[in-house]
Design brief:
With about 180 residues, this protein is of the alpha/beta class. About 35% of the residues lie in helices and about 20% in strands. The chain has six helices and six strands, in the order E-H-E-H-E-H-E-H-H-E-H-E. It has a six-stranded parallel β-sheet, with helices on both faces.
Length: about 180
């Protein structure tokens, strides 16, 4: 087990934030580490998640109410989604406390915080009080200044060109 874990932020409006986080999960698993992934604002298994779920030493939690984008959610769906996020985060915290997590990936948590679907105070408290060995990855479009202050790594993915701009929709095995 590491003596010191660091905080990574993968942010920006470009493609690849989740993919980078899942690549790090594979790297950690390859070194025999225990990994926990909490996906916020997502409830469908993407290609990388389907494969990761087949491996040992990884736990994955995800979910939201409804199948549409958060901008189309009713207030009731937003409340249900907040509860799902809090429950999933609590499961992950328990695994950390039990020593069953060395790498924690909080995928799309930055967007969940920005959309008020997860409390920033809860995330900050966790980051400030996490065990010293725990490596944490946060993904999403933007991190608030106070969350950015907690980070040791900040990697920005910027869109320069994307097929969606030409009407090409997400493709299985590439975007999901």
């Amino acid at each position: 087990m590491r003596e010191r874990g660091l905080v990574h932020i993968y942010c920006g409006n470009g493609k690849g934030k989740t993919t980078a986080a899942m690549g790090l999960a594979l790297r950690a698993l390859g070194q025999g580490q225990q990994v926990v992934v909490v996906q916020f604002l997502k409830n469908h298994a993407t290609g990388e998640i389907k494969l990761l779920e087949q491996l040992d030493h990884i736990r994955i939690f995800r979910g939201k109410a409804g199948d549409h984008f958060t901008s189309s959610m009713t207030e009731e769906e937003r409340k249900k989604t907040r509860k799902i996020h809090e429950k999933n985060f609590a499961h992950a915290q328990q695994l950390v406390v039990e020593g069953k997590c060395e790498l924690l990936i909080l995928d799309e948590i930055l967007d969940a915080v920005a959309k008020e679907m997860f409390e920033e105070k809860m995330l900050l408290s966790f980051l400030e009080n996490r065990p010293p060995f725990l490596e944490v990855v946060l993904t999403g479009r933007e991190a608030s200044p106070v969350i950015r202050e907690c980070a040791d790594y900040i990697t920005r993915m910027e869109k320069e060109r994307h097929p969606l701009d030409r009407g090409i929709v997400a493709r299985e095995g590439i975007e999901y």
